[in-house]
Structures are given as structure tokens and as C-alpha cells.
From TrEMBL, chain A:
Chemotaxis phosphatase CheX-like domain residues: 43-136
Keyword Phosphoprotein: no
Keywords: Chemotaxis
A GO biological-process term: chemotaxis
InterPro entries: CheC-like_sf, CheX-like, CheX-like_dom
Protein name per Swiss-Prot or TrEMBL: Chemotaxis protein CheX
From TrEMBL, chain B:
Any single Pfam family the record assigns to this protein: CheX
Keywords, in A-Z order: Chemotaxis, Phosphoprotein, Two-component regulatory system
BP GO annotations: chemotaxis; phosphorelay signal transduction system
UniProt-listed InterPro entries: Bact_response_regulator (IPR050595), CheC-like_sf (IPR028976), CheX-like_dom (IPR028051), CheY-like_superfamily (IPR011006), Sig_transdc_resp-reg_receiver (IPR001789)
Transmembrane segments: none
4-aspartylphosphate found at: D55
Name of the protein in question: Stage 0 sporulation protein A homolog
Start and end residues of each Response regulatory domain: 5-120
Organism ancestry: Bacteria, Bacillati, Bacillota, Clostridia, Eubacteriales
Tree of life domain: Bacteria
Function (record text): May play the central regulatory role in sporulation. It may be an element of the effector pathway responsible for the activation of sporulation genes in response to nutritional stress. Spo0A may act in concert with spo0H (a sigma factor) to control the expression of some genes that are critical to the sporulation process.
């Protein structure tokens, strides 16, 4: 599996998340998927253009998304995934992807990102139109965070 | 550049006089001047200038501190540092304080004008984008559907029922737009509508949902691509490009439109309805 496309995102997660006060960050395995992704909970997708082109998708289950939003909002309780919580999660995806872009630029790969699109629900099927999608999973304070990268 | 209101902060009345002359020559209005930090902070709060030229040495503080205080209150104002001293350390400090550009004294009129133009070009460009994106997308959708499926094609403004969210009708596609400013297109329709459209376009009744999804992905890609070309044609500085589409399929999905500047439409055709949302967002300014 080609790690060149996913490493900048792994570095972004390990750099950004502790800044918000997440305590434990464990990188689980890599996997490869083809085309279809099925997820439940919150899905955030961002477009990427430049020397490489494609998409990145962040998936977190509903409960985990609320916890992450709460921590980002300095511990404010989040019972519902309201506007504020959605905005916090979008902003996190923005920061992670922007940081990954900086990491790419260190390897002389220049890319730019679009605004995030956030959606939530059950059994969300995502079609990224790429044969190869790299996936990395993190355990963030017990919350599962999956990142799918489809870049060529 | 027109109608910009400027404040000059400098501890030298001579420098203020020189800068005032340069700024007024390029048609800007100097609305205030200040010789020290306290005066600058007070006047900035009261007058809210669009642009501030900031000296780095002030009798009761420095330009970095002064800029920081002013920007706490005035998020929209832009500050250009103008100082006789300039080295990497102070430039770094200026950037961190939120100052947008750094010029060394003596400043020449052309250099100052160029820096201001560059600083405000993004604002004007964003205004042009805001004024034109709706038409560009409407034209793009209308042309595509008229040519490909024919019949009646109508675009109606649509008000989201719940603030900022849309319950998906079954199949949605998101396409990002990336350039000097950024944006995103969302198209959402039922599987049946997508299927009707692909059957009509290909004149083939045996098309499946899988193929309809491929069609929707390409449909959104063409709409966004053509609209971005129209916008880039208005001003090349937009440099808009589209990212590959992401297709989202499911029975129970809510799409968050987010708090960006966006417009929603219902596209009505003989083959069914589609929801469309286009949003734009101001890009970051880079250091000058």
C-alpha cells in the first residue's frame, strides 16, 4: 500500500488533536477499500486539487462526534449535534486537512482544499469514484476516527 | 480600492504628511492620523478605518502591540506596517500580530499603491464572486438540462425548512471549488429522478441505479466545471478548479449546509425534482 498519500494526514492528526486536549491517540491499522465506503454517524468530506486530486473523508460515530465537539468547545456539554457542534467538527476537518496540505508541501506536493461538507445519518454509502482508497483508523480517547484518502 | 478609509499611525508629523499625500493621490480618503499608540487605539475604535498604516516605533509602545489591540476590536480592518527598520524577526512578529504587509521607509508611492491593491483585491474579487455565482450555476444547470433531457426546465429559489440542513432525497453529490476563494456545490435528488434522467439521456430503459449514480456524479462535475469556467472568464484571478465529486447514497442522511454564504434552488424538470445548493467562502489572504 502506498503510504505517501495517507502519511500527511496521520501526521496532521498526531499534531492537531493533542492541541485540543485529547489525551490518548492510538493509530490502528491501515486498510484499503475500493470505491464504496459505508459509514454511520458523522461523515465530513473535503475536496483536494493541485499536484494531486481527490477527496478526504473523516468518519466518526454519532456519540464520538458529540464527544469530540464537546472537547473542541472547551468541555461544553453536547447532547445534540446542533449547528455549533457541526461547525466545530467542520472546523476540525478543515484544520486537519489544511495541516495535511502543509505536510504535502514539505514533499514538494502542492495541494489546496475545498470547504468541508458535513452529513450525518445511518448507513451512509459514499462513492469516491476511485479504485483505491487508503484508510487509517485512530482511537482518540476511546472514540473511533476513520480517515479515507482517495488521491491520485 | 475606491472608498477605502485610511488611518495613518506614525510618530513623525513629516511621515504622516508624506503618507497622506501618497494615499490621497491614489484616491484614498485619510480619515484619521495618530502620533501615538493610545491615540491610535482610541481613534481606530471610533472611526473603524478599512486600512491602517502602522509605524513600528511609537512613543508609548510599538506598532506590534498597537496593531494587536486594534485588531482585537476591529476584525475587518487591515494593517500595513510601514517602518524604517525591517528584519526577519520583526516581520515574523508583525505576521503573528495579524499585520498583512510590511513596507520599509522610505516608501515609494508605487510600492504602497501596489501593496494596498493586492491587499484589497481579494475583497473585490470575493464581491464579484458573491454577485455572480448564482447566475453562473443557474446558467450551467439550465444549459445542461435543456440540451441533455429537454422539456421544461425551471429553477426556483428554495428556502431550507430547517436552518442549514437538508434531508437527502436518496442520492446526493458534493463537488468542491477551489481557487482564490472557495466553494461547494451540492445536488440532491431521489434515485428515481437520477434513473429517469440517465434513461432519457442514454435512450436506454435498461439503465440501473448504479449507472444513475455515475450519471449524477458526472452531472455535478459538469455543472460545477462549467460554472467555474464562466466565473474564471469574468476574472482570471478566481483560478477556480473543481475537486472530484463525492456521491452520498442512503435513506436517512442529513446534509449540513454550514454557515457559509449559500443559495438553494429546486430544479424542476419533466423527469423529477432536484435540490441544488451552492456555497462560497472567502479564501485566506496570503502575506504580502
Amino acid at each position: 500500500m502506498d503510504l505517501k498519500n495517507i502519511n500527511p494526514f496521520i501526521d496532521a492528526v498526531t499534531e492537531i488533536l493533542p492541541q485540543f486536549g485529547f489525551q490518548s491517540l492510538v493509530q490502528k491499522g491501515f486498510s484499503e477499500k475500493s470505491k464504496k465506503i459505508i459509514a454511520s454517524g458523522v461523515v465530513i468530506t473535503l475536496g483536494i486539487v493541485g499536484d494531486k486530486k481527490g477527496n478526504v473523508v473523516y468518519c466518526i460515530n454519532q456519540e464520538g462526534a458529540k464527544q469530540i465537539a464537546s472537547i473542541m468547545m472547551m468541555g461544553m456539554p453536547v447532547d445534540e449535534l446542533d449547528d455549533m457542534a457541526q461547525s466545530a467538527l467542520s472546523e476540525l476537518s478543515n484544520m486537519l486537512t489544511a495541516n495535511a496540505c502543509i505536510n504535502f508541501s514539505k514533499e514538494a506536493v502542492n495541494v489546496d482544499i475545498s470547504v468541508p461538507t458535513l452529513l450525518f445519518g445511518e448507513n451512509i454509502e459514499l462513492n469516491l469514484n476511485k479504485e483505491e482508497i487508503s484508510c487509517v483508523e485512530f482511537d482518540v480517547d476511546g472514540i473511533k476516527l476513520e480517515i479515507y484518502v482517495a488521491l491520485v | 480600492m475606491k472608498n477605502l478609509r485610511v488611518m495613518i499611525v506614525d510618530d513623525s508629523t513629516f511621515s504622516i504628511a508624506v503618507l497622506r499625500k501618497m494615499l490621497e493621490k491614489v484616491g484614498l480618503e485619510v480619515v484619521a492620523t495618530a502620533l501615538n499608540m493610545n491615540d491610535a487605539i482610541e481613534k481606530a475604535k471610533e472611526i473603524k478605518p478599512d486600512l491602517i498604516t502602522m509605524d513600528m516605533t511609537l512613543p508609548d509602545g510599538n506598532g506590534i502591540e498597537c496593531s494587536r489591540e486594534i485588531l482585537k476590536q476591529l476584525k475587518e480592518s487591515k494593517i500595513i506596517a510601514i517602518s524604517s527598520m525591517m528584519d526577519e524577526e520583526i516581520i515574523e512578529k508583525a505576521k503573528n500580530a495579524g499585520i498583512k504587509a510590511y513596507l520599509q521607509k522610505p516608501v515609494d508611492a508605487d510600492g504602497l499603491k501596489a501593496a494596498i491593491e493586492k491587499l484589497f483585491a481579494g475583497e473585490e474579487l470575493y464581491q464579484i464572486l458573491q454577485d455572480n455565482y448564482e447566475e453562473a450555476f443557474k446558467e450551467s444547470v439550465f444549459t445542461f438540462l435543456k440540451n441533455e433531457i429537454g422539456g421544461e426546465v425551471e429553477l426556483e429559489n428554495y428556502q431550507l425548512k430547517y436552518k442549514g440542513v437538508r434531508k437527502s432525497s436518496g442520492v446526493s453529490v458534493a463537488v468542491g471549488m477551489i481557487g482564490r476563494h472557495r466553494g461547494r456545490l451540492i445536488i440532491d435528488m431521489s434515485g428515481d429522478t437520477a434513473l429517469n434522467m440517465v434513461k432519457k439521456i442514454l435512450q436506454d430503459e435498461s439503465q440501473t441505479l448504479e449507472e444513475a449514480i455515475q450519471f449524477l456524479s458526472e452531472f455535478a462535475n459538469v455543472i460545477a466545471g462549467n460554472a467555474c469556467s464562466l466565473l474564471n472568464g469574468l476574472n482570471r484571478s478566481f483560478g477556480l478548479r473543481v475537486s472530484p465529486p463525492t456521491v452520498i447514497i442512503g435513506e436517512d442522511i442529513t446534509i449540513s449546509i454550514g454557515d457559509m454564504d449559500s443559495k438553494s434552488f429546486m430544479i424542476k424538470t419533466d423527469l423529477g425534482e432536484s435540490f441544488m445548493n451552492i456555497g462560497v467562502q472567502k479564501g485566506d489572504e496570503s502575506w504580502i
